[in-house]
Structures are given as structure tokens and as C-alpha cells.
Write a structure and sequence with these properties.
Length: about 350
């Protein structure tokens, strides 16, 4: 959607004017029907038909030859009717435009209130998957897209979006880049991704930037431009296909964990906050498996960011550490709320 505002129009007077105009039009139809019936001695159906073709300027031949007074009456019906119909059409279009502008203002107000959110640039096949995963996980995000068909889909799905070009700074700012937690670039051209990365890094030096690349040789360029992480969907797809052949059991396990609900399992990360019940305890002391039925796959040190895989029972959990856990969504939510103080 456009970030440029529009002058506010009061809906109540316009609605009242439309109601009065429609009532006037209805009254004019009644007057014309009975007027022709009385003046020309026509039937009511003939009078209604003559009134209709006069007001709508269809221009069909007169039902019967008109008298002089009938012609004067027709001029009156034509002027009044055509003017009223034109007024109703104009006001109706104004109401439609006003409704669209009100929705735009509401959408922009909602986006302006976001903070610690993600900005997704590009709503192609990859962008759609990311948006769907974010929506399911309840992660706040806004999409920047300017393709008309994709914008219409975003409207239909009622997702937060900006109708604009991610290369323009004003649209990044409208999406709240200064308050955002991260920027995800899935634009089809690497050159565009490089440019947007440069602009975004200049606006918000602390922003986490994740970029898609089509060519492996462009990875270094994107990193130098300011990207924190660069992902090649083609390489990931090729590696996954190879894993299906080389390690089918591992692939099946990871598919169950990451992509299906059959086992009701998922892998997630949980940060241990200050004052949480798990802070300062070892894995054995926390009884994490018994209380939350979740498996700790790894512990990332909150200070050094060092990752310890397959931690032992004596390993200590400190405030600020991040736990990589495997379990059901409900259990992980309980762990995040009751154990980690989130």
C-alpha cells in the first residue's frame, strides 16, 4: 500500500447525501411514471419505461408520439434524472475511494505500532513460505511488495504489507526498519538484494539481515554489503536431495521434526531470562525432561555465543543462555513461560 496519506473525508455527510439522492431518484421515477400515464394516457408500464430510457440516456425511440406538454415534461425528467444519476455515481465512487483510504490508514497505523518485528521484502515462492511460518508462529512481520497480483493476495490474506519498492528508503522506513528486529530479503535479483542491504544497514546498523542469493559467488558481496547471513535455496535444495539418498533415516527424522505434525514435534530455541527458575541450575538440577518433557539438544552461551551440542547433566544453564530444544509446541511454550521467564 502507498505510504502517502490522503485527506480525510467525513463518511456521514456523504452517506446522508447518497440516501437523499436515492430517495429523490425513486420519487422522480414515480413522478415520471404517473406523469406520462396522466399526460399521455399511457399505461404505467409504458410510463415507467419512458422514464427509465430518458433518465439513463439510452436513447431508444419514444413509446408513442409525445404531445407538446409531454415533451416539456420529458425535458424536466431528463435534466433532473441525469443530474441525480451522475451525482449518485460520483458520490458512490467517492465512498469506495474513501473506504480504501480508511483501510490504508488503519493498516499504516497498525504497522507504525510494530516494534521488534521482521520486514520481509519480496512475496514470491520463498517469501510466501516464510510469511506462512511466521504467521503460524505468531511472529510479528510486515511485507514489502509492489507486484499487483501479489498485493491483492496479501489483501485477501489480511497480512500487514507495504505496497512499494524495497529499494526506496521511504518504504523501508514506513515498514518500521528503525524499530525492526530483522530484515529478510527474498528479492529475485542479487543486485537488488545488495542495494537494499546497503540501504538498510545504513539506516539501522544493529539490524539482523538475512538475504537470499541465487549464485554462490555473490555470497561474499552480500556479506560485504552488510548481510549477517546469506542463504542459497538452490544449494539447500541440492543438499537435501542428496541427504534423502545418502542418509534416508536421518532425513525422515528431520522431516518429522521440522515439517510435519504427525509426531507433534518441533525444534525451537528458548532464551533463559534473568530470574528464571532454570537460571543457575544444571540440567540435572532443573529436571527439565521430567517437568517439561523437552530434550535439550544444545546450549548456546549468552556471552560468548559458543554452542555446546549434546550437553551433559552437569552442564549449567545461565541467564542469557539459549537452549535449543526438541519437543511438542505446547511443552516448549510451557518451558518458555514457566522455566525461562519469557
Amino acid at each position: 500500500m502507498s505510504v502517502r496519506g490522503a485527506k480525510r473525508i467525513n463518511a456521514r455527510p456523504v452517506g446522508r447525501e447518497l440516501l437523499i439522492a436515492n430517495l429523490f431518484l425513486l420519487g422522480l421515477i414515480v413522478i415520471g411514471t404517473f406523469g406520462y400515464s396522466t399526460i399521455e394516457q399511457w399505461t404505467l408500464v409504458e410510463g415507467l419505461y419512458m422514464t427509465f430510457i430518458t433518465m439513463t440516456t439510452i436513447g431508444f425511440q419514444e413509446v408513442h408520439e409525445l404531445s407538446s406538454f409531454g415533451r416539456i415534461f420529458t425535458i424536466f425528467i431528463g435534466l433532473a434524472g441525469i443530474g441525480t444519476v451522475a451525482f449518485i455515481a460520483t458520490r458512490s465512487a467517492q465512498v469506495l475511494v474513501m473506504g480504501q483510504r480508511m483501510k490504508q490508514r488503519q493498516l499504516m497505523q497498525t504497522i507504525s505500532k510494530l516494534s521488534d518485528h521482521y520486514i520481509l521484502c519480496g512475496y514470491g515462492r520463498i517469501g510466501m513460505r516464510i510469511a506462512e511460518d511466521f504467521r503460524r508462529s505468531g511472529v510479528p512481520f510486515v511485507i514489502i511488495e509492489n507486484a499487483e497480483a501479489k498485493v491483492e493476495r496479501l489483501k485477501h490474506l489480511q497480512l500487514l504489507y507495504i505496497d512499494g519498492d524495497a529499494e526506496e528508503e521511504e518504504f523501508l522506513e514506513a515498514a518500521g526498519i528503525t524499530k525492526a528486529r530483522g530484515l529478510i530479503l527474498t528479492l529475485p535479483e542479487d543486485s537488488v538484494n545488495v542495494f537494499v542491504t546497503l540501504v538498510a544497514r545504513e539506516i539501522n546498523p544493529d539490524l539482523f539481515i538475512l538475504v537470499r542469493t541465487n549464485k554462490h559467488q555473490n555470497r561474499r558481496k552480500l556479506i560485504r554489503a552488510g548481510a549477517d547471513k546469506v542463504v542459497s535455496p538452490y544449494e539447500i535444495g541440492a543438499d537435501r536431495m542428496a541427504q534423502v539418498i545418502l542418509r534416508p533415516a536421518v532425513d525422515r527424522f528431520m522431516e518429522n521434526v521440522l515439517h510435519t505434525d504427525a509426531l507433534n514435534l518441533m525444534m525451537d530455541e528458548v532464551t533463559v531470562n534473568e530470574g528464571a527458575s532454570l537460571a543457575g541450575k544444571s540440567l540435572a538440577e532443573s529436571n527439565l525432561r521430567q517437568h517439561f518433557d523437552a530434550i535439550v539438544v544444545s546450549i548456546m552461551d549468552g556471552k560468548t555465543l559458543e554452542m555446546k551440542f549434546n550437553p551433559v547433566a552437569t552442564d549449567k544453564i545461565n541467564a542469557g543462555d539459549t537452549l535449543i530444544v526438541l519437543g511438542s509446541q505446547e511443552m516448549i511454550q510451557n518451558l518458555r513461560k514457566d522455566g525461562c521467564g519469557s
